[in-house]
Specification:
Layout (H helix, E strand, L loop, with lengths): L1 E3 L4 E4 L6 H9 L4 E3 L6 H4 L8 E6 L2 H12 L8 H11 L2 H5 L9 H5 L6 E5 L3 H12 L22 H10 L1 H7 L9
Parallel strand pairs: 2-4, 4-5
Antiparallel strand pairs: 1-2, 1-3
Length: 187
């Protein structure tokens, strides 16, 4: 989370949505307070006044989940469809999803939705343009975002009807709210 009173905003870092790149750019602004870790607006609700504009970044849930999987397994390459399918199955247990230590898998809704205030949504798929537009509206400029934490290996076809459905069910609210579509499957 970054809070900047001078420019009147707070930004929540949703994991695997380009947040490291955005955080680095925002941290350079005068008066930026960088809070370590992935914090929700709910964690700061009492400290943030109503005048603070809240914003966060979202990403297609299937892409985000796969990116998180690859990030966690980046030392083990290549990833097979069977490994990914098993990971999705294991991740579907209620105990896995409920603990904040698994915030990477929490739906964006729980991270970016504060009580009763609007959140401006930036999309990973158009991140640079969205960041530029919001910064301009708020009266400051940022340098071009540097792509950080990029997976060093290209995508592979890991999707099956089972994994598409599992992620779709888990992120149903986000998919409906932001209009995301499932990936194509080679199966």
């Amino acid at each position: 989370m970054i809070v900047n009173e001078q420019h009147g905003f707070a930004w929540a870092h949703v994991p695997k949505t380009g947040g490291t790149s955005v955080r680095r750019a925002l941290a350079e602004l005068p008066d930026s307070q960088v809070h370590k870790g992935h914090k929700s607006f709910k964690d700061f609700d009492e400290q943030l006044g109503r005048h603070i504009i809240r914003w966060a970044t979202v990403r297609n849930p299937w892409d985000r989940f796969y990116s998180g999987f690859r990030h966690m397994h980046r030392r083990r390459v290549p990833t097979t469809k069977d490994e990914f399918t098993q990971f999705v199955r294991d991740s579907a247990t209620p105990s896995h999803w409920k603990h904040r230590t698994y915030i990477l898998w929490s739906p964006e809704y729980w991270i970016s939705a504060p009580s009763g205030t609007e959140v401006h949504i930036l999309r990973f798929e158009s991140l640079q343009a969205d960041v530029d537009d919001l910064a301009k509206k708020m009266g400051f400029e940022l340098p071009p975002l540097e792509h950080r934490n990029r997976c060093p290996h290209g995508p592979i076809d890991v999707w099956t009807p089972e994994t598409i459905d599992a992620i779709g069910e888990r992120y149903r609210d986000d998919i409906e709210r932001y209009g995301y579509e499932p990936p194509a499957t080679g199966a």
